[in-house]
Amino acid sequence: MRQSPETLADAPLDPLEWLLAREPVPYEAAVAFMDARAAAIADGRAGECVWLLEHPPLYTAGTSADPAELVDPRRFPVHKTGRGGRYTYHGPGQRVAYVMLDLNARGRDIRGFVASLEDWLIAALAELGVAGERSDSGVGIFVEGAKIASIGVRVRRWVTFHGVSLNVAPNLEHFSGIVPCGLHGTPVTSLAALGAETDMTRVDAALRACFEQVFGAKLD
User: Fold this and answer.
1) How far apart are CA 194 and CA 209, in angstroms?
2) Is residue 174 one of the residues assigned to a domain?
3) Which residues are part of the catalytic machinery?
């Protein structure tokens, strides 16, 4: 069932709006919403927003996906997507944050935007008592060599969409159907596996507070 903005809950922060989906969102519905919202932001008909959600179990194939890295194509639905990157998994217990920002107003620097997403995740993990770090092996955030968060973005008319995913308490075995992000031999971890905070409300609070530290709550 397609979900519209009216089914999302949380108070807007003008002009940056935070949206929270209470139930898992089908991937096609999420992409349709992001497409529409990014176009509206570019046209000046809507403000920026960050959408926090979970998906049902599924795999997504980014623009650099290698078919050989789809180990078990029959396990979960596979969605081709316009974001950068390779194969990744989404499912219950993983916090996905779709970030729709206007880089026309924030500086047309895509690499800087991705670096800020990394800064955001590292800061949020620190709030949750976990030391996350970058790695030379690929984009995303790692804890002691294991990947805990992924980043995959798309930019159209200098408006960003797609975003990040943080493993809170997903079933990590579900990642075995792909080579996550093309990182052969790199393990995947989660807050639960690390014995850290898994209450999604507290995770969301950390994400929101640290987002405002890195990006600012609103444009000047």
Assistant:
1) 22
2) yes
3) 181
Domains in the chain, number: 1
* pLDDT tens, residue by residue, 104-140: 999 999 999 999 999 999 999 999 999 999 988 778 9
Kindly state whether residue 2 falls inside one of the protein's structural domains: no
pTM: 0.89
**Residue-wise pLDDT tens digits, 160-206:** 999 999 999 999 999 999 887 777 778 999 999 999 999 999 999 99
Domain of 19, CATH number, reads 3.30.930.10
> How do residues 207-220 score in pLDDT, each as one tens digit?
999 999 999 865 43
